[in-house]
């Protein structure tokens, strides 16, 4: 089942987006960003949560040596800036548009908290989502710190399979139709595009997988 606009069985877009809520429709607008535009910077005030209506958004921060560290690349239907719900006053990361036309729906933190206070079931779903997001980021940090490049690729593919994969009934292979470029994937696992490409070709040579631009097929062992 598609995860777009859903926290399990809660329709996030319908519940949160001001354009779907009569009370907020006239006072709120979608925001559009071009490629490489920043939605917010580190240290900006954390006053809103964002839902992606179109495009891709990169979340990351800059290490002390100035190197960019990518935490996540999110696509349509996903939520970001969510730490503001938990009381974060200033951003600990930046958010940057990766597409020429990225559309996001900003939701004021007060509106989100009002919805959560008025609907306990929805509130629990949101907190569960936040827990899953933090666990995913912790797992990725563990990959970056303690795993070699090939292991990072394989474990990231497992993650992609969970999010975007399905079983091909004819072969039993896991087919992953994903929204990421090779540059995106390389950034997420902390390696270079040439290294990623070499590893993918090595895995293809041993019949572990096959791949094209927007599809990866994990072969049955």
Structural notes for this entry:
There is one protein chain. The longest helix is centred in the middle third of the chain and has 27 residues, at 120-146. The protein is of the alpha+beta class. The chain is built from seven helices and 14 strands. It has two domains: 12-141, Jelly Rolls; 147-218, Arc Repressor Mutant, subunit A, CATH 1.10.10.10. A hairpin with a 3-residue loop joins strand 13 (209-211) and strand 14. The strands form four sheets. The chain has a four-stranded antiparallel beta sheet with strand order 3-10-5-8. Strands 4-9-6-7 form a four-stranded antiparallel beta sheet. The model is unreliable at 1-11 (pLDDT under 50). Residues 147-221 form the HTH crp-type domain. GO terms for molecular function: DNA binding; DNA-binding transcription factor activity. Residues 12-92 form the Cyclic nucleotide-binding domain. It comes from Dokdonia donghaensis DSW-1.
Explain briefly what this protein structure is.
Helix content is 38%, strand content 26%. It contains seven helices and 14 strands.
- Helical amount: 25-40%
Low-confidence stretches: 1-11
| 3D shape | globular
CATH fold category name of the largest domain: Jelly Rolls
Name the beta content range: 25-35%
Largest sheet: 4 strands, antiparallel
Order of helices and strands: EEHHEEEEEEEEHHHEEHHEE
CATH superfamily descriptor of the largest domain: Jelly Rolls
Give the strand order of the largest sheet, numbering strands 1, 2, ... along the chain. Answer: 3-10-5-8
What is the quaternary state of this protein? single chain
């Amino acid at each position: 089942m598609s995860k777009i606009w859903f926290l399990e069985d809660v329709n996030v877009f319908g519940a949160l987006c001001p354009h779907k809520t009569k009370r907020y429709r006239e006072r709120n607008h979608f925001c559009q960003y071009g490629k490489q535009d920043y939605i917010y910077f580190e240290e900006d005030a954390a006053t809103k949560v964002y839902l992606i209506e179109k495009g891709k958004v990169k979340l990351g921060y800059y290490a002390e040596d100035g190197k960019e560290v990518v935490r996540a690349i999110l696509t349509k239907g996903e939520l970001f800036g969510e730490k503001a719900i938990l009381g974060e006053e200033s951003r600990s990361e930046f958010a940057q548009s990766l597409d020429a036309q990225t559309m996001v729906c900003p939701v004021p933190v007060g509106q989100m908290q009002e919805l959560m206070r008025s609907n306990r079931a929805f509130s629990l779903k949101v907190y569960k989502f936040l827990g899953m997001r933090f666990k995913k980021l912790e797992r990725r940090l563990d990959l970056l710190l303690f795993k070699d490049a090939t292991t990072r690729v394989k474990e990231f593919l497992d993650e992609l399979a969970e999010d975007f994969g399905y079983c091909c009934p004819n072969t039993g292979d896991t087919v992953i139709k994903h929204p990421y470029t090779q540059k995106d994937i390389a950034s997420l696992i902390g390696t270079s595009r040439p290294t990623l490409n070499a590893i993918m070709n090595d895995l293809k040579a041993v019949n572990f997988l096959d791949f094209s631009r927007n599809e990866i097929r994990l072969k049955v062992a």
